[in-house]
Amino acid sequence: MRVVILFGTEMGTAESAADSIAEELREAHDVSVHDMTDFDIADLDPRHFHVVVCSTYGDGDIPTGAEPFYDALDRHRPALHGLRFAVFGLGDTVYGDTFNRGGEIIAERLVECGATQVGEHARHDASTEIRVADMAREWAATLDIPTLVSA
Ligand SMILES: Cc1cc2nc3c(=O)[nH]c(=O)nc-3n(C[C@H](O)[C@H](O)[C@H](O)COP(=O)(O)O)c2cc1C
């Protein structure tokens, strides 16, 4: 199945997590990775499985790189029924209550548009020693994405 990975980042960590997830999934799927900054919401397609990789900035806000995507969803409210997505969020517990809000904010908006979140909502914590790349790969391996048998 085609897997579309969308990352939203401020400093690049979410992009490297997206790349690690792509590496893990490429063996079994046709994978593409996109910066949310450049992704047209008209290309959200329920036939594809989506992975959202998003960090948190400010006071529990989405990073700058996710703003165009979020704003477009907010403005156009596309009907995304049937679209399945999973979320790998990034944050830091040092920020308390706002921990990992970025990925949650994007997930909430996609669900409001009719999409369905699946799998475990991953929340990387930059205050731990767990490497983002390791956690991202392990998490990606747990996703239940149908494999299409080619005709
Ligand atoms: C100025 C600043 C504000 C941040 N605010 C939050 C926050 O409110 N909540 C949170 O969980 N993490 C917060 N973080 C942590 C980042 O989300 C975390 O370091 C993440 O790995 C960065 O990913 P990125 O490089 O893709 O942007 C903040 C980091 C910085 C530098």
What does it look like?
This protein has helices at residues 13-25, 67-76, 101-112, 132-141, and strands at 2-8, 30-35, 49-54, 84-91, 116-117, 122-125. It is an alpha/beta fold and 151 residues long. Strands 1, 2, 3, 4, 5 and 6 form a 6-stranded parallel β-sheet that branches. Strand 4 (84-91), helix 3 and strand 5 form a beta-alpha-beta unit. It is globular. The model has no long low-confidence stretch (mean pLDDT 96).
Write the layout of secondary structure elements.
Blueprint: E1 2-8, H1 13-25, E2 30-35, E3 49-54, H2 67-76, E4 84-91, H3 101-112, E5 116-117, E6 122-125, H4 132-141
Helix pairs in contact: 1-4
Bound molecules: flavin mononucleotide (FMN).
Flavin mononucleotide binds next to helix 1 and strand 4.
Which descriptors apply to this entry?
single chain, 151 residues, alpha/beta, 30% helix, binds flavin mononucleotide
Please describe the biggest sheet, giving its number of strands, its sense, and whether it closes into a barrel.
6 strands, parallel
Q: Which molecules are bound besides the chains?
A: flavin mononucleotide
Number of strands: 6
Radius of gyration: 14 Å
- The outline comes out as globular
The H/E string reads EHEEHEHEEH
Task: Tell me what portion of residues adopts beta-strand conformation.
Answer: 15-25%
The percent range for helix content is 25-40%
Distance from N terminus to C terminus (CA atoms, Å) equals: 13 Å
Low-confidence stretches: none
Number of H- or I-type helical stretches:
4
Could you report the average pLDDT, rounded to the nearest whole number? 96
